[in-house]
Amino acid sequence: MKLLTMAILMVSVSPWLLSASAERIDYCDFIPEMNAGWSSNATLPKFDPEMGTLSAVDLSCEMNLSQELMIENENPEPTNFTLMLSGQLTLSLPSSESLSISFNRTTGGNLSQYDGVSDYDGSSGTRSVTQIPTEAATKSIADISDFLASTPGESIVLPVVIDVSSQTKTSGKSNSGVISRAGAKVCVSYTYNAKSGEGGQQC
Fold it and tell me: What pLDDT shows up at residue 21?
């Protein structure tokens, strides 16, 4: 009976010991929302070897995207319109790989005959701002050496580019414009085994 009790105790304690041996710390950088079609950089701290032994590096990227549509039907008859917006965010990695978020969205509507004023308002015009949902992208890094600091406070700079194209279709004559705005959040997650008697502090 004593041996059976000891075996059950070991099974329940072992997973706790395994999870307690690994630490994780996350860092994020934010690129503010601006007119889409930009290139920028995400700057992230590299892992400090003084904290312990790095075992895994994971990257994640999120994008916030919005479109402002302005359109006026200048025909004497009602018309339908279609707006097609597509593009991609690309985060470049030191290994020549990349992390990307693609989007492709089509919206439409109808407008009454021209009311005589091209103000994107009234029955023949519209002006709207729409938030466009996008999915986050993640990637586990194979070569973690690129993320190891060789000097205190060292950072890694990752280029970020957003390309956007839009097209508005109507029948007859219309006056239209589209403004797309986008921002990004890039995060790195370091999994490591802390040095004995020491532990990293999460920022």
Answer: 66
**CA-to-CA dists, residue 194 to 25, 61, 202, angstroms:** 11, 26, 13
How high is the pLDDT of residue 42? 98
Give the Cβ contact number of residue 132 at 10 Å. 15
pLDDT-derived band at 44 (thresholds 50, 70, 90) equals: very high
CB neighbourhood size of 12 (10 A): 9
Question: What is the four-CA torsion angle of 191, 197, 201, 202, rounded to 10 degrees?
Answer: 30
CA distance 170 to 25: 51
Confidence of residue 2 (pLDDT cuts 50, 70, 90): very low
Q: Phi first, then psi: what are they for 29, rounded to 5°?
A: -130, 145
DSSP notation for the chain: -HHHHHHHHHHHHHHHHHHHT-EEEEEEEEEEEEESS-EEEEEEEPB-GGGEEEEEEEEEEEEEEEEEEEEEE-SSS-EEEEEEEEEEEEEE-TTS-EEEEEEEEEEEEEE-S--S--SS-STTEEEEEEEE----EEEE-S-GGGGB-SSTT-EEEEEEEEEEEEEEEESS-EEEEEEEEEEEEEEEEEEEEEPTT--PPP-
Cβ–Cβ < 8 Å for 77, 161: no
Both tokens assigned to 179: 């403004």
Contacts of 84 (CB under 8 A, 6+ apart): 104, 105, 106, 166, 167, 168, 169
